[in-house]
Design brief:
Largest sheet: 4 strands, antiparallel
Distance between the termini: 53 Å
Number of helices: 6
Oligomer: single chain
CATH class of the largest domain: Mainly Beta
Structural class: alpha+beta
Strand content: 25-35%
Helix content: 25-40%
CATH topology of the largest domain: Cyclophilin
Length: 243
């Protein structure tokens, strides 16, 4: 029997004594993540008292709260049962109403030339493609931001088409420059800071992806749709100077 993922109810589990986890299962599944985003956006809009953070991922949503605040203001219920009771109507609403998830389209400039495309030639050769064809196909896809993590502002995006998808490097690099665009499996991402890493680097954006002086301090957000477009070395330098 085929599972209709649009009708899946998440499993609700405690996260220690200060949170709970909604888990839809499904891994890297756009349909499941659409449900995660819809639930996340509805809960954010409710401004639930005592809730400190809502953290969406590929197929789950973590809800963290201030236990002291909840026990003081709602002494007759355990925080887990209280928050669970608050979110159950939202889960029912998600199942019975189609909600348009709010998204942004972000077009990101990338230089796919040397010295920025550290692994592009080797990857293209493995796929029996020219670098130009690899880039064209990579840039033709629209990628969804599923979650932020690893580094501040590191956006995990998918889905890289199957023929371009590539495993992480067998030997990670000690330093990958900020702005590097990489592929790992069916995911793509942009390193926001200089960092060690094992993703296959195919180019670099001149954009700063982590902006601690801004609010929010990240360039990409969960739910964004991203399209990459190719620029040359001179344009890269010009945009880098503007950052």
């Amino acid at each position: 029997m085929q599972v209709n993922r649009s009708e899946m109810q998440p499993k609700i589990s405690p996260l220690g004594d200060q949170g709970l986890l909604l888990d839809w299962g499904g891994g890297l599944d756009p349909v499941v993540h659409h449900q995660v985003q819809g639930c996340w956006q509805r809960l954010v809009a409710l401004h639930l008292p005592g809730v400190l953070d809502l953290i969406p991922a590929y197929s789950s949503l973590a809800i963290l709260w201030d236990s002291v605040f909840l026990m003081k203001n709602y002494p007759q219920q355990l925080p887990f049962e209280l928050v669970k009771a608050w979110i159950l109507p939202v889960l029912v609403e998600e199942r019975t109403h189609t909600k348009e998830v709010s998204t942004r389209m972000v077009e990101v400039p990338v230089c796919f030339e040397s010295p920025y495309a550290l692994d592009l030639e080797e990857l293209a050769e493995q796929k029996q493609l020219t670098p130009a064809v690899f880039i064209k196909r990579f840039c033709a896809q629209v990628y969804q931001v599923y979650l932020l993590g690893f580094l501040p502002g590191f956006a995990y995006m998918g889905t890289v088409e199957a023929e371009l998808a590539s495993p992480r490097r067998a030997a990670p690099r000690a330093l990958i420059p900020a702005g590097s665009v990489g592929i790992a499996g069916a995911q793509t991402g942009i390193y926001p800071l200089d960092s060690p890493g094992g993703w296959q680097v195919i180019g670099r954006t001149p954009w700063r992806m982590f902006l601690p002086e801004e609010e929010p301090p990240v360039r990409l957000r969960v739910g964004d749709e991203v399209r990459f477009y190719a620029i040359g070395g001179e344009e890269f330098s010009r945009l880098l100077d503007q950052e």
